[in-house]
Request: fold
Amino acid sequence: MEPPAPQAPAMEGEIVSRRIDVHQHLVPPPYREALAAAGITDVGGRALPDWSPQAALDQMSDAAISSAVLSVSAPGTTLLDDPSAAARLARTLNEYGAELTRDHPGRFGHFATLPLPDVDAAVVEARHALDDLGADGVVLLANSRGRYLGSEGHDRLFAALDERRAVVFVHPAELPGPQVEGIPPFAADFLLDTSRAAYLLVRNQIVSRYPNIRFILSHAGGFVPYAAHRMAVGMAGDTGRTPREILDDFRSFYFDTALSAGPASLLAVLNFARPDHVLYGSDWPFAPSSAVTYFNAGLAEYTANTPFGPTVAAAVDHRNAEQLFPRFTGTAAPARTGAAATTRGAIKDRLARGVFKLMNPS
Ligand SMILES: [Zn+2]
Reply:
């Protein structure tokens, strides 16, 4: 394992008091209405969850999350056939996110939705969201109506994002092509979708030509950390670049821990990623609170039994994200309200770690 970047040791208790969630979703009412109008009741194989700003704050309090950069999940505006309707919906969602951020300074940030696959409209919206609305970055789906991020034709958008040193949160969508019966897309397909986008972003030299963009890959990067050497060898034969150059490009990605804080995934991502490129993610509310608790316990268990564990935990929980989103630096998580809630919370955390250990006997 690569040694973590030198930094001051974490203070006792720091892990639970400061946590920046880069993978948390919002479901604004106009988005819920648009999904309903299109007859969409589930996303990635899961029913559309309830969401409200207060429910998000309550969940953050429960999971010791101090700040969250919110994004609209798949399908985003790709649910609309009409490009101008998609652009209008993106604008509505981004104004909603900006207002929510203004109303809860330090707690919420937001990644703007862009109306891909219409690249010109996406450039217009990226400029508006980043320059005028103060968005913390943009969320881009790994594929938008079958068109993959990193495939030809996105240069105008990447140039605009590079010029602004934008953070680009890459989120999976349903794979082009029919679903396989019995496999909910979020459970397996989403990982391939992210891996495909990451592959093309490296293969078509997007990450090397636009080095100021900070790309975050969802869910520990899909298969990237586990399969990067295999991908590099394949790509070297295809492009004439060296595997070392290709691996350097793959290592330029940031990776979030959403739904991925099990020992095998963490081992892969912490070994592969740069130490300052792993970020905490929850995927709430599409991941239910129980799943967030389970994976938080997994992260705590793993780091407790890892060399430099407190330093790694502090880096993943907040220090690395503070480099990308400095305005959240120093924000403390809201305390659980009252002594009874604090005790209940502590018992729940301990039980969750017990359950996690039972599921992962050493
Ligand atoms: Zn998600």
